Structure formats: structure tokens, C-alpha cells
Amino acid sequence: MSKKVIALIVAGSLALGGAIGFAASQIEDVTAQINYGISMKLNGAPYNPTEADGSALRPLIYKGRTYLPVAALGKALDVAVKWDGETSTVLIGEGDKMMDFMSIVTSLNTNDITYTQDKELLYAGGKTFDSGLVYTKIYSDGSWSIDGKKLKFNPNGKYSKIGFTIVTDNEYPLNIKVCGDDDEVLKSIDTSEGVQNIELDISGQKEIYFVGSGSTAWSSGLTQKIVLGDIYFK
To answer: In which domain, by residue range, is 216 found?
Structure first.
């Protein structure tokens, strides 16, 4: 089933969980039925959506149409679903940019990687960022690496995209891999290509982490600096 079909399947369904408030003039009471006889399959396998507490979610029948729970289907189809209470809007797929990315950082080696809004630290490649992560390291040999899971985000399937700008002031080519669940490589970045604006599809991904490597005849005392600027999720 195409992910794009979800918007058609769940139109009108608001089984998002949590409190959803509307003005009285926008609410109409209806009579619907729960059909316990309907079974579902997802990609050929039995599918039984549940609430967060494990209780079963059943299709509703109203005027001959079947309504399914949007949040549960979004999770099953790896499509982010969010509720915007301020505008009373169901967000399927991309929503507004979430700039407070530090709220979902679960691993950050503060000896090498720093979150900052310091414009001097965030200046690289002729560009200054509003906020971001700065990786710095002083070398004692000719190798370079960011260990796996040193920089890790846990979007937990709630976001469809991650975006950031990556740049280094150093001339030495480095390789940065952005990885997801099951160590899937979502993007391989060559820093020698200069300032790069990256936006990646992370639909359904519960974990995003960065791995970097490179080697050259670096002299002892050389400082390497990489900036991940203006990171956002949506």
C-alpha cells in the first residue's frame, strides 16, 4: 500500500489519542457503528491496530463508509502523524519545522561535540548559523573518526524529515554517514564538496545517528572542526 494513500484512507478520522478540543459550533453528533467483523491486512499480513495501552482499535462505520484510526495507520505505514492543537489540524507526513532538536538527542559526546548558539563557533565555510552542533578535535595522529552512536537522535517515528547544513573549514576530505534503524545508511556526505544543505526522509525511523571517518597525513596538533548548523525535524 502506498504511503500516499493514507491521506485518503483516514480522511475524517481523528483517532489521534489525547484530548482534542473544538468549538461547539464545529461539532456534529452522529451515530456510527463499530464493526467487530472487519479484519485488516497490511502488506498481506494480518493487521490489528491498538491504542498505546494495548487495547484494540476497531473500524467505525458511518453512512456506509469505513473510518480507520489515523495515528495507528501512520505508525504502521511509517508516516508521521501529529496533532496541532493550536490550529486544530491533523498533520500527516511533514509538519512544521521542529527546531528544538536537542530535546530528542539521546547521545552526545560533550568532549568533542557541543551544542551552541555562539556565532563565532558557528562560523564555518563563510557561513554563520543561528544554532547547531560543533565537532572539534585536536589530532595526535593521522586518523579521524566519530564513533557510532556518539551523536544520536531518537525521533521515534514522529518526524518525516531531518534537515541541516554541514560544513568544515578544513581542506581534508572527510566522510560522514547518516544512519537509521538497523544501521541503514540514509546518506553519505563528502565534506570536500563544501557547504551542503541536507534534507533526508526519515519516515518511520526511530533512531538517527552519525558516523564519520577519514585519514590523511595530518600533523600532530591539527584541529578539525565540523559544523552541523540549523538542524530541524519536521
So the answer is: 101-233
Cα 230 from chain centroid (whole Å): 14
pTM: 0.61
pLDDT, tens digit (0-9, with 9 covering 90-100), for 109-125: 767 888 999 999 999 88
Contact assessment for residue 83 and residue 61, using Cβ atoms and an 8 Å cutoff:
no
> 61, 92, 123 — which closes off a domain?
92
Domain boundary pick from 92, 119, 141 = 92
- Residues 128, 85, single domain; the answer is no
